[in-house]
Amino acid sequence: MRVLNASQMREADRRTIDEIGIPALVLMENAGRQVVAAMEARFENLADHRVAIICGRGNNGGDGCVVARTLHQRGVEVGVFVIGEIAGVKGAARTNLEVLGRLSLSVVEITNEQEWELHSSEIGGCHVIVDALFGTGLKTPLQGLLGTVVADLNSLGIPIVSIDLPSGLSADTNELIGDCIEATMTVTLGAAKLPLVLPPGQAYAGRLVIADIGIPNEVLNNVEGDRIELLTREDIRRLITPRAADAHKGDFGHVLVVAGSRGKTGAAHLAAMGALRSGAGLVTVAAPRSCQSTIATLAAEYMTEGLEETETGGIAAPALQRVLELPQDVVAIGPGLGSDPETRAFVRELLAQTGSPIVLDADAVNAFAGEPDPLSAREGMAVILTPHPGEMARLLGITTEEVQGNRVQIARDFASHHRLYVILKGHRTIIATPKGEVFINPTGNPGMATGGTGDVLTGMIAAWFGQLLDAEAACKIAVFLHGAAGDLADADLGEVAMTAGDLLDYLGDALLEVTARKRVEG
């Protein structure tokens, strides 16, 4: 599902109106009716509510006028308040405003703070407020009367439904440009917008509904500019195909997990089980020799290989040749490796010499801290990085705060410059591709902020790559299912009690849910 900025949304509107031939009035009518449908789904007995509709003078206000008319026709008591001089309302918005007058619906014009204060008690007596002040066109902070309106509406404690964006947010950034409406629900029109799907803006949107207002998918998908998409269940379902009846383990890839060190054997186990729970045909764990027996006792389903080790219990540089000789369709390296300088040198040499696709996580990413150029993918070999913000910061030699403040651009730039895939983990994990495309994952929750969850993801990515031989699809499926399993675990266990091992228990249910299959109860 495409995520558009302000200029891209304007272009989609223009093409729909000028080239496709759908009039602006039709789009506005569709928008208003979709907002009403979302309100009816959200609020029980809406007909018994009083609704205040706060309109601006642009198209967002015109959408609000359609909402007012539609609610009125359904027996809802509505009050319409235009912030600013009504004489400034133009185009399709003006047409819909005039329709309200012909239906004898009163419209209150508010041009200063005294008039606002006079009518604010009337608004405060309503059950629901519709925010139709500003859509995607806002670029500067709200000030003066508009700032007062937003602050007062937020203070009322009344549910607010925002049309397109909570007023005060800019469609061009997920960062806050000033004060904004704190919406209970946002019904965004045509396509998702960046501040609705990424923090901190996302926190002000409430429940997000993406409304189809008649803009053709061909238009939305072909608007030029940065390509950002929000992953959906339907996207993931299309990527997963049923297995053939005569399939065998050789069809689903051999994942080599290079992981673990003294005291960190659990990381290797979690990565290996993440691969197995994601359908890998075979999994081998290569770890320091002193760790092999411990890892082997944790599960019977994977194979193990003991490697030469350093004095500190990490993988030694001479182990490289043996790792290159082991059976492998894809390599997952990094969980629990440790920071021994010799182990870091081993990681760098393995990347340089292997001909296998490779997923680098945790300490394997740290092996390139401050020196990322060797990560640049070789022709025909996929490289997938899975850093958390701190690891990304070390990689680039910047602060974690700088990474978190510009997650999309940093992930995109790194992926396109080095011709690899970046999975920048965290709330709303970012997937960036060598072509500069960005995918935002909506699944997951704070309960997953615990040790080992990233190790599970590393194994999952490698397993899906081994089956599909498609790095982009593997990243999308693994990240989405990883978060979906966390959401299922949260529903049963709660965020606080969740562990990384719980994700393994729910991966099967997450896959069944995404593929619309049901568990067969015994």
Description:
The two termini are 37 Å apart. With 522 residues, this protein is of the alpha/beta class. The model has no long low-confidence stretch (mean pLDDT 96). The chain has helices at 6-20, 24-42, 59-73, 91-102, 113-124, 144-155, 194-197, 217-222, 233-239, 265-277, 289-298, 320-325, 341-353, 363-366, 389-396, 400-405, 407-418, 453-468, 471-493, 500-514, and strands spanning 2-4, 50-55, 77-83, 107-110, 128-132, 160-163, 185-189, 192-193, 207-211, 228-230, 254-258, 282-288, 303-307, 330-333, 358-360, 383-385, 421-424, 430-432, 438-440. Helices cover 44% and strands 16% of the residues. A twelve-stranded mixed β-sheet has the order 8-1-10-19-18-17-16-15-14-11-12-13, sandwiched between helices. The chain has two domains: 2-225, Rossmann fold (3-Layer(aba) Sandwich); 250-368 and 382-514, Ribokinase (UDP-N-acetylmuramoyl-L-alanine:D-glutamate ligase).
SSE order and pairing:
Blueprint: E1 2-4, H1 6-20, H2 24-42, E2 50-55, H3 59-73, E3 77-83, H4 91-102, E4 107-110, H5 113-124, E5 128-132, H6 144-155, E6 160-163, E7 185-189, E8 192-193, H7 194-197, E9 207-211, H8 217-222, E10 228-230, H9 233-239, E11 254-258, H10 265-277, E12 282-288, H11 289-298, E13 303-307, H12 320-325, E14 330-333, H13 341-353, E15 358-360, H14 363-366, E16 383-385, H15 389-396, H16 400-405, H17 407-418, E17 421-424, E18 430-432, E19 438-440, H18 453-468, H19 471-493, H20 500-514
Parallel strand pairs: 1-8, 2-3, 2-5, 3-4, 5-6, 6-7, 7-9, 10-19, 11-12, 11-14, 12-13, 14-15, 15-16, 16-17
Antiparallel strand pairs: 1-10, 17-18, 18-19
Helix pairs in contact: 2-3, 3-4, 5-6, 10-11, 10-18, 10-20, 18-19, 18-20, 19-20
